[in-house]
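Researcher: We're teaching a course module on how sequence relates to structure. For the next exercise, students receive a sequence and then see the predicted structure as tokens, so they can try to spot secondary structure elements on their own. Here is the exercise chain.
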Amino acid sequence: MTTTTIDERLDLIEEMGRENKVLLDSIKAKAETPPPLPSPVIPWLWFGMGGIAGAGAVAIAWGAGMSERLDRVEQLLGQSAQRQSEFEERQAQYEAQRERDRKDWEERDRQFAERMERAEQWHIEFQESLNETKALQQRNAEAISQEMQLISQLRQAIVDQGRQIQENRADMGSGMDPDEEGT
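Model: And here is the predicted structure for the students to work with:
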């Protein structure tokens, strides 16, 4: 099955309309031309029916047949015009639907672009927040490390002080003055 575009269909319909117009014009031209003279084989038709009057009867009979054909051609042209009109109406509906669909897609694209922009902004804010959090964690780790060093120094100082107290007690128990120890 082949698909045709709307332009191809319109071209085909226009071509059919031109052909129908040419056909109608040729039929009308034939209807306007006088009927041919009767065949010499049957001269009684020409003279037997009253000469010119007989020829008139032949013309009337010929014209009646042409009239029926003209009526049929006009009917076909009318149907063709109606189909053309229906096609144009469907085409207009199709174009209107296409325009609505295009606007819908443009709106969806716009909304999607806005959401993507917001998501990108949120991502940037998240990265900034994450970087700030990492910096805070680093500072906290450094502060904890310093506090651990201070605690370690305090423990060492407490241990040293406890040892000094023990030494002082031992010296007091022996009767020596701790200040005189070095003399």
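Model: If you want an answer key for the exercise: The CA atoms of residues 10 and 121 lie 50 Å apart. The radius of gyration is 57 Å.
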